[in-house]
Specification:
By secondary structure, the chain is an alpha+beta fold. The protein has helices at about 155-165, 170-180, 235-245, 255-260, 325-365, 375-415, 485-495, 505-525, 545-555, 565-585, 615-625, 650-655, 690-705; strands spanning about 5, 10, 15-35, 45-50, 55, 60, 65-75, 85-90, 105-110, 115-120, 130-140, 145-155, 220, 440-450, 450-460, 470, 530-535, 600-610, 635-640, 660, 665-670, 675-680. It has 13 helices and 22 strands. The strands form three sheets. Strands 1, 2, 3, 4, 5, 6, 7, 8, 9, 10, 11 and 12 form a twelve-stranded mixed β-sheet that branches. A five-stranded antiparallel β-sheet has the order 13-21-22-14-15. A five-stranded parallel β-sheet has the order 17-18-19-16-20, sandwiched between helices. Helix 3 (about 235-245) runs antiparallel to helix 6.
């Protein structure tokens, strides 16, 4: 499975001959630099570019194109080369883009020579930059890894080369531009959009990614951190609703342009030439069509599935592509996320356009001296406001129609979800039994938008986890989404949360640890008995009440040892496990692992980080965060980032590598396509419910059974 990387994340390479595939929204120049341990270049000969496409072990394309393939043979590189950086730059003078932010985010995929995907990175968050270091392959203890970099430069190629220590950066940049200009006739346009039909995404990426795999029907990117793998939708159909009213500005103006920037224009189905209704559904998703007026009995065709009394089709759970019901439900939830993001983006775009048009018409009315006196001015302003109200009403009607369809679909999908995808209040947990196979995804909570508070989209992430989790227990975690009635409603509906105002710091810490235990319990419950284990670091011993269900069920052998001694013991054990499994994988000697080594996947919960951690413990924790996921060791921090400020930027890579979630509803997750701020709600069990203890009890019984 191709690993979806976020900025700063790395992934091991299991081969030394690879191909790097680049896909962008327009022609870009691709190059490679060969740096030493510090990433510094020895000279112009350390750069492979269209004017000098071949260096030892490297070959890059000779022209600007929307798609590239770069060949890399790491074994052929000089021993002095420790970093192989992939550069992307926008060419000048060929009528293309001038900034990466004006097109779809470029992506880079590292594959084997047979096309097998190893790692993929979508470079989100770019704006005015015209050059970017996409990824780097780097040498670590005689092995190679790929790291997602995403470092952009607004001053273009010269600034990027200068930053890598090349004295003649300007001269080499000019040489590259000249070589690209000579090959201008060979420039390849952007790839054609996919034909409308079923989404070809298997499901990050929430996160991401998706999406993450977007974060897997969820935004994969956090607004205050790197972005899930992907998630989101294309330009909204409601933007076309504005066009359907006779407007010439359409989605290209105001916020409509922002919404449209997240998707290729070819993704939008053409408006009907006969003036008929516009299809607002996601163009690459097979979903139940919106209710339509019933046909006369004689003309109505035989229904192929369940229908309402008026003959319109009803939504069906699992109505998506996939090899299994779980995969079909996963893809259906992903499609619902796309549709909601798209519909809301359309509505917001149309509303922004209506507001812009109102302002323009009011300005024209006031600019005409004839309208400044008498009733003419009032009539002109009233007419402008009526047009504005009509446009907004039309956009809202289209949104309400889409929301009604999604609500109907959600009502049949939610009860059909398996335990791994279901909320704790789903009846499926009452009939829980220990699974025989590992699941494909995990529900981390719910997502919703302010336009429709009643529609919750499950936030699913693919398993095994490729990113650690950070549950923000700081007092600022509640304030990111800002005040407002939507947040109040979300808080009142959250099981176990307070209803009389924002929680104080001790209450936030309690909710954060309860969220961690709820996620850990779910991970234990959805894996076969013995295939998943939990370890906890709690130097202050404050997490004991929340950990009680894990200890009482035997999922956690005992309460964690407090103090620095407990920190050291757990980190040493997990570091040893990671190193031994890495060696076994590298040498294909899994049968040589020590008999006392627990090969089950491990979740390490660190409570109240960084309390109790010294420099050595911090180094080990960062090692586990970087190397652990590939060998089945996953990290979950329950922490207030403000408490680690004394460490300065040392811990910044750690925070960026983790997916931040909150113990209370908070609008901090953003999808990378449309840029919606999604409100996240944590996966707590209903207040007073014993479902978590019951599930852990059944899991304990299964472990004891012969």
């Amino acid at each position: 499975m191709t690993a979806e990387l976020v900025r700063g994340q790395n992934h091991p390479l299991d081969r030394t001959r690879v191909e790097i595939r680049v896909a962008a929204g327009g022609p870009v120049v691709a190059g490679v630099t060969l740096g030493d341990e510090q990433g510094r270049l020895s000279g112009a000969e350390a750069v492979a570019h269209p004017g000098a496409p071949r260096r030892t072990g490297i070959e890059v394309p000779r022209q600007a194109a929307a798609e590239h393939r770069i060949a890399v043979d790491l074994d052929a590189l000089s021993a002095a080369v420790h970093r192989v950086s992939v550069l992307l730059a926008l060419p000048t003078g060929i009528g293309g883009l001038t900034a990466f932010g004006a097109a779809a985010a470029p992506s880079v995929t590292v594959t084997g020579l047979d096309g097998t995907g190893i790692a993929r990175y979508t470079i989100t968050g770019l704006g005015a930059e015209s050059a970017v270091v996409a990824v780097e392959l780097y040498r670590r203890q005689d092995t190679w890894k790929v790291r997602a970099v995403g470092q952009g430069y607004a001053d273009g190629l010269p600034a990027m080369l200068r930053d890598q220590g090349l004295p003649q950066a300007a001269e080499l940049a000019a040489e590259i531009e000249e070589a690209v200009g000579r090959g201008q006739a060979r420039a390849v346009p952007a790839p054609a959009p996919l034909a409308a039909g079923r989404s070809e995404r298997p499901g990050a990426g929430p996160s991401a990614a998706p999406a993450q795999d977007r974060p897997s029907p969820a935004p994969a990117a956090a607004a205050d951190g790197p972005a899930p793998s992907g998630a989101g939708a294309g330009a909204g159909a409601g933007a076309r609703a504005g066009a359907g009213t006779g407007s010439t500005a359409g989605p290209g103006a105001g916020a409509g342009a922002k919404a449209a920037a997240g998707a290729k224009a070819g993704d939008l189905p053409p408006a009907p030439a006969d003036g008929g209704p516009i299809d607002y559904r996601h163009p690459r998703r097979r979903s139940t069509p919106a209710p339509a007026a019933p046909a006369p009995p004689a003309a109505r065709p035989a229904a192929a599935g369940p229908t309402a009394p008026d003959g319109s089709p009803l939504p069906v759970a699992g109505d998506a592509a996939g090899w299994s019901m779980d995969e079909r439900l996963y893809n259906q939830v992903w499609g619902m996320f796309e549709d909601l993001a798209r519909s809301v983006a359309a509505y917001r775009s149309a509303a922004d356009f209506a507001e812009s048009r109102l302002e323009q018409e009011l300005d024209r009315a006031l600019a005409d001296p004839r309208h400044r006196l008498g009733t003419a001015g009032e009539d002109a302003r009233a007419t402008a406001r009526d047009k504005h109200a009509t446009l907004v009403t039309q956009a809202r009607a289209a949104l309400d129609r889409d929301l009604a369809q999604l609500m109907a679909e959600s009502e049949v999908v939610e009860p059909a979800l398996p335990p791994a995808f279901a909320r704790w209040d789903n009846p499926v947990w009452q009939g829980y039994h220990v699974p025989a196979e590992r699941p494909m995804a995990l529900r981390l909570g719910d997502l919703h938008l302010p336009e429709v508070l009643d529609l919750r989209i499950p936030m699913l992430v693919r398993l095994p986890l490729e990113r650690g989790l950070w549950i923000d227990s700081g007092p600022d975690s509640y304030a990111h989404g800002g005040p407002g009635p939507e947040r109040d409603i979300g808080r009142r509906e959250l099981p176990g949360a307070l209803t009389d105002g924002p929680p104080d710091e001790p209450e936030l810490r309690r909710l954060a640890m309860e969220s961690a235990v709820a996620i850990a319990a779910r991970l234990l419950a959805i894996h076969p008995a013995g295939d998943f284990a939990v370890q906890v670091i709690d130097p202050g011993g404050a997490a004991a009440p929340a950990l009680a269900p894990l200890v009482e069920s035997g999922a956690l052998p005992a309460f964690p040892l407090p103090g620095a001694k407990g920190v050291t013991a757990v980190l040493e054990e997990l570091t040893r496990r990671v190193e031994l499994v890495q060696m076994a994988m590298r040498h294909r000697a899994a049968d040589a692992l020590p008999a006392d080594l627990d090969t089950a996947e491990q979740l390490l919960i660190v409570h109240d980080f960084p309390h109790g951690f010294d420099d050595r413990a911090l180094t080990r924790l960062r090692y586990l965060a970087d190397e652990g996921p590939a060998v089945g060791v996953h990290l979950m921090l329950v922490a207030d980032r403000a408490q680690s400020r004394e460490y300065g930027p040392v811990l910044d890579p750690l925070w960026r590598s983790l997916l931040r979630i909150t113990p209370v509803p908070d609008a901090h997750l953003a999808d990378p396509w449309v840029g919606h701020a999604w409100t996240y709600e944590p996966p707590l069990a209903p207040k007073g419910s014993q479902v978590v203890r019951q599930v852990l009890g059944r899991l304990a019984a299964a472990r004891k059974a012969p």
